[in-house]
Amino acid sequence: MNFDAHQIISRVYKAKEDSHAADELISDYMPFIKSETAKFLNRPPEQSDDELSIAMFAFYEAIKNYSKLRGSFLKFAALQIKNRLIDNYRKEKRNKGQISLDVSDDEKTDLKDTIRDEHDDYEENEIREATKQEIEELSAQMNDFGVSMSDVAENSPRQRRTLEICKKAVAYARNNPDILEDFLRTKRVPLAKLAEGADVERKSLERHRRYLVAVLLICTNGYEIMRGHIMQVLKGGEKV
């Protein structure tokens, strides 16, 4: 299998519009999909493993959501696969926590402890590693925009009013992919378009430009864990 970057991008863009091409791409990159699944399972996946099916679907999602402005497709797809597998792991853990009412109280306690012992450390390590990876990738991408993590922390909205303004601007950008594409291409926040489209004050957006850089990047590059943190900051409105 040829991992030539230009060839992959060409095939991905074709697969966006052609379901047959998408099926061929998934088939050709099954070794990659299985490799990413194996990293999560710490063993080669079996054909019957649910995790492999989830990874295949995540690869398909990556095809649909990819833009060449996001850099390496395989890097983007690997992150999508890992995030989907972590989400599935969390759901399975919650389901295992639903203990039968026919079990005695003492047995319930023992079972809860067993579940916690077997899974908590593993989940925490996986989430910690995935979060670290996302932060490193986001930091590197932000550097291309001339923004650091400390800049974002210092530039975050402090008042509810300015937070609402930023939230409206982000929601407008997410509903208009051409604006996000322009943002990634030019490496500049399109303040005028955001202010006009979201019907908010441009000056407020200008004061929080560095914060908007981080949030818009999170919205465009599959940073699922970071997106969850941003959702908490912008809670009360549309999820980021």
Automatic annotation (TrEMBL):
Which keywords appear in this protein's UniProt record, sorted alphabetically? Cytoplasm, DNA-binding, Sigma factor, Stress response, Transcription, Transcription regulation
Regulation of activity is described as: Negatively regulated by the anti-sigma-I factor RsgI.
One Gene Ontology cellular component: cytoplasm
The answer to whether UniProt assigns keyword Secreted to this entry is no
Subcellular location, record wording: Cytoplasm
Q: Where is the RNA polymerase sigma-70 region domain?
A: 25-94
Report the Pfam families cross-referenced here: Sigma70_r2 (PF04542)
Q: Where is this motif: Polymerase core binding?
A: 50-63
The GO molecular function terms of this record are: DNA binding; sigma factor activity
DNA-binding region (UniProt annotation): 191-210
The biological processes this protein is annotated with in GO are:
DNA-templated transcription initiation
Stated role: Sigma factors are initiation factors that promote the attachment of RNA polymerase to specific initiation sites and are then released.
* Assembly and oligomerization: Interacts with RsgI.
Enumerate the NCBIfam families for this protein: sigma70-ECF
Q: Which family does it belong to?
A: Belongs to the sigma-70 factor family. SigI subfamily.
Protein's name in the database = RNA polymerase sigma factor SigI
